[in-house]
Design a protein that fits this description.
This protein is of the alpha/beta class. 31% of the residues lie in helices and 32% in strands. The chain is globular. Bound molecules: 1-O-pyrophosphono-5-O-phosphono-alpha-D-ribofuranose (PRP) and uracil. The site of 1-O-pyrophosphono-5-O-phosphono-alpha-D-ribofuranose has 23 residues, from strand 4, strand 6, strand 9, helix 4 and helix 6.
Amino acid sequence: MGQVHVLDHPLIQHKLTLMRRKDCGTKDFRQLLEEIAMLMAYEVTRSLPLEDVEIETPVAKCTAKVISGKKLAVAPILRAGLGMVDGIVNLVPTVKVGHIGLYRDPETHMPVEYYFKMPPDIEERDIIVVDPMLATGGSAIAAIDFIKKRGCKSITLMCLVGCPEGVQAIQEAHPDVDLYIAAIDSHLNENKYIVPGLGDAGDRIFGTK
Ligand code: PRP
Ligand code: URA
């Protein structure tokens, strides 16, 4: 079963509370999401392998550590996942970015695919799939299905807010995928929105409502 890491760092929790408030405007919401994504990426990349290199400081020669040639990619689920990309890119500037276009059908709540573009060597990369919201889990499950079909074997899911239903669904559908998340809220309401959640993440990032 994939591991679930709830990132309870005080900075992440404080910023998330600011985002949840209904009077948090688009500019602040976007900035806070980017900042949290950077803090979360710090944890997601914690187990990247290191290797020794020989260097020379102004004082002496020594052996020091660098990240050893691990190939990473980040794959936002459109639209809302886009709000988490820059935070990761700021921390790992060489990361490649793929895009997975999905939206939830408002009637059926099922994910509908409309775009898919990944780096060509996706099967050699560790992919971090990002989406702020894990509600029913349908979108994340479908996104991971797509990238597995293209040959990717190493996938991590990074979300901001989820609920027990979504966490259980992703664990059942993709038991090999670890989840990093800032909060697991109470439940889904009748419209499949997370309670208390933060509303519609895409609309709040892009100011479309
Ligand atoms: C939201 C969110 C997730 C999805 C979560 O996207 O960003 O992708 O819903 O719900 P689920 O776990 O039940 O699938 P939405 O479909 O609203 O599209 P948007 O990002 O374009 O606003
Ligand atoms: N998508 C969102 O943006 N928010 C929710 O609470 C559920 C799905």
